Amino acid sequence: MRHTGFAGLVRAEPYEFGGVKGRSALDACWESASAAGIEGRKEDSGLVTVLLDLSKCYERIPLEVLVRRTVEAGWPRRVVAVAISQYAAVRWVTVAGATAPGGRATHGMIAGCALAVKFLAAFLREPIYRSLGLTLEDIEIALGMPPPVEGIRTYVDDLKLTKVGPPAHAAEGLRDMVVGLKRELDHDGMKLEFSKCQALGTTPAHRRALKEALGAWGSSPLARSGTWARTRPRAPAGASQSSRAA
Fold first, then answer.
1. pTM for the full predicted model
2. What's the pLDDT tens digit per position in 84-99?
């Protein structure tokens, strides 16, 4: 796949780590640590980050949408056709010795497929850019290159969203990024797994601002999804069931 990318057929997106030369898991860790170290030393600024996971990521991907986005990303149509024909092949489900009638899949990439990581990056391209308010067509026609993606990094099915600035500004900006990305992913039938979420700040003030922006009971969709499940106190006695969910 790296050779394909070098040939100009498949482009590595600026947010993409994993399966890209020079952007391994270790590279992603070093980049995060370096950014936190640099911003954490600034008196008037700082950095806040949310680490997210896509729930049942490969299983939820709609194949019809995947075909369109991989072709738009530059994948050869024959390669896409071969892969999708395997993903959509007839399947039988067996439970406790009983086998259901065979049926063709409309969603889901096969686990272990060598193309799955790169196909996922192509699939996420549109919701990521849309969540940032960027129009793919206008930017790429005008510049002939992918738009810059500030604050979003992917590593397979894990996402890191980052915002830099004074505590309140950074925390509120990060909240808006997460809410926007969630909205676009919901549109594609994808789900962010908030029970595994981790929110981090480089200073105590940034961590307090994050908790206020993301974890206020009943005021944030992230709070109702359990963003602060591992660090927050129990819900007040009168809290609704949705705000108790972790």
1. 0.72
2. 999 998 888 888 889 9
